[in-house]
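seq as requested:
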Amino acid sequence: MKIAVIGTGYVGLVSGACFSHFGFEVVCVDQNAEKIKSLEKGVIPIYEPGLDHVILENRDKGRLTFSTDLKSSCENAVAIFIAVGTPTDEETGQADLTSVFEVGRQIAPLLKAYAVVVIKSTVPVGTAVRLRDVILQTNPHAQFDIASNPEFLREGSAVEDFLHPDRVVIGVNTKKAETVMRQLYMPLSDQAVPLVITSSASAEMIKYTANCYLAMRIGFVNQVSDLCEAVGADIAEVALGVGLDKRIGRHYFAPGPGIGGSCFPKDTLAMVGIAQDHRVSMSIIEEFIVANDKRREDVAHRVAAALGGDVRGKKIAIFGIAFKANTDDIRDSAAIIAIPSLQDMGCAISIYDPAAMENGKTLFKNIKWCDDLYEAAQDADVVVVLTEWKEFKDVDFAVLKSKVGVPLIVDFRNLYLPEIVTQAGFTYHSLGRAAKAAQ
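struct tokens:
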């Protein structure tokens, strides 16, 4: 079976590579010729653990190819996946579907033999119906069905998530489309992975509901963390005691500097927009968005408070600018707001991130970019941990103390045990716990 995947961004590239790993013939299509040339050479445009191995292995076996030619790529394909971007529309706050519908217009004349057009991009409820209309308006004789197949890929573990998912959600409105989609996911259903077959509207809703719920869990534990600081409780103990309840669980239940990345901020805004269009209240998500924005804005103020309020001329070492570990994605990360704010206060900034610095260099100015965390910490008045990279967790505190100007750590990921840090001679500020002075 041949599959065409249109769009070689994060979702399209991971999906295409993993389908080829299942044994299908996959063509990944993109209009960016330079990107396609790079992929053909084995240059992977994103940092995602394990993705390079999957791409190179299946490229070398001839199962995975890359092309700018939409017509030849879609020819004889039983499924055409649309995996283009759906960024937030700044005016409406909803997902911008321009690229999705443009792809629909482009593939419409090519649908002479039956194929399932699969929406892999994150889209609002009703998009499958609208895309069907767009295709038929362009080519009334097109032979196709629409399927909604939302992705649930976490950056940093996307390959594992695709190959070993909790479930696969498939929204279809015909048995013929369902049959094709079941064939595509047979390598997973044969391993007892549940296939959740729904209408297209339900599939579209499942994606937004899942992401909004997970985002709000993080927002909730962040506010509980603030309350723990105020009343003298320890958020690590509270989260453990609550998370062991089987009804609640421990995933997505740790405090941080606010959510970021390409999904949660965009999807919470879109969910509110969908609700407003249908005159349904989503006030709980609206409150979360406000709280999360404030959470990220508070990062710089927390750092300033740890320094005693007067930060002009201080040297600040930032450990991590990616919105989470194991990715180079800095979209909507806490660093995007915190670093300019600290610079406006008169601070000098040095940064080390294992994967995201090249992306950061396109955004931040007047930064000292460092080759390792110890170089970043040289003569620093405070070390600020923004990303939970394992490399940061494994830091040698004795070496770190010999580098810094002032032994002070502000940890927005709670990577360390306070007693270990303070015994090493650092004053330690973290989330949801009282600050600890050096011993």
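The first strand starts at residue 2 and ends at 6.
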